[in-house]
Amino acid sequence: MLILGEKYTFTPLEIERLKKKFSNISTVCYAEQDPSKVINNIKQILNSDRFTIIVLNTKAKVDDTIISFLTNLKYDKTYKHLKIYSIEHFLEKFLYKCYIPEDNTDLHYLDDIQPFTKWQYFQKRVVDYFGIFWLYLFSFFVVQKCKKKIQQESPGPIYFKQDRVGINNETFTCIKFRSMHEKTDYFNHYTQKDDPRIFPWGKVMRRRRYDELPQIKNILKADMHLIGPRAEWDQLVENYEKEIPYYNQRHVVRPGITGWAQVMYRYGSDMDDTRQKLMYDLYYIKYWSIFLELQIVWKTALVVLHRKGH
């Protein structure tokens, strides 16, 4: 694949995923460059290997001659196998996330992301009840072990309760197994690698998602779905919205115990991670389907069974 421009910066994880699909990934910068030299550079790269995709990762104004060249590529028999994608289309098709601009120059995604229809909501509630029945059945002994280990390693409350933001920006009380020592500050910063606030079994619970199991009660109360965007602490959401003004777009649907962002991206540690996970959340809402739900269930199961996960 050939990337024209530097509008979007691919993360190391995305580069790793793309290398599994494309043996050769090249980038051409065109801003403030002589158009004829840019065109020659593109030709040389395309002729050096069998490129199948050109990604228009363009932010700066593109010269007319470059646009004309790209337009006419489709009529050249030499490049008949070549397809051209905008960065927005490319991210959705190959990386399963929605592009959101950092400079707020394009707000079309605000129209793309809509609440679930009544039929979609009905299907999700069926998934919820079916899922939590089996989840409760298979996790019964895990839940008992969690309660015992929490008391052994960090005496105090077994459950951790916190106000989280749900559908329509309404707050609800989220219930989780406590994974940090009671006398430490849960809220002073993002969870870091080897965070000293987390006791040993707490690390196991967080890695395997066991700490989320008590949220079954939130699902029964219709505060949450089994699958959806992660329910975030209301004070964090307030901070996120200051940095990412469209952040609350994810709250057009109920949050979930697990979700597309959770299985596709690592735990967030800063605002850039929050932005990245938001792109996956918006993709999930935009392209929701039963098949996507099943994909998330499968990927979550791999995390729990130690086969995969961040």
Give a quick set of tags describing it:
two-stranded antiparallel sheet, 310 residues, single chain, 45% helix, 12 helices, 2 domains, 11% strand, alpha/beta, 4-stranded parallel beta sheet
Kindly describe this structure.
This protein is of the alpha/beta class. It folds into 2 domains: 2-95; 118-304, no CATH class. Helix content is 45%, strand content 11%. It has 12 helices and 8 strands. The protein has helices at residues 12-19, 35-48, 64-72, 87-95, 109-112, 118-153, 200-208, 216-220, 234-243, 260-264, 271-286, 290-304, and strands spanning 2-4, 26-28, 53-56, 83-86, 159-165, 171-177, 225-227, 256-258. The strands form 3 sheets. A 4-stranded parallel β-sheet has the order 2-1-3-4. Strand 3, helix 3 and strand 4 (83-86) form a beta-alpha-beta unit. Helix 6 packs antiparallel against helix 7 (200-208). The protein is elongated. The mean pLDDT is 90.
List the helices and strands and how they pair.
Blueprint: E1 2-4, H1 12-19, E2 26-28, H2 35-48, E3 53-56, H3 64-72, E4 83-86, H4 87-95, H5 109-112, H6 118-153, E5 159-165, E6 171-177, H7 200-208, H8 216-220, E7 225-227, H9 234-243, E8 256-258, H10 260-264, H11 271-286, H12 290-304
Parallel strand pairs: 1-2, 1-3, 3-4, 7-8
Antiparallel strand pairs: 5-6
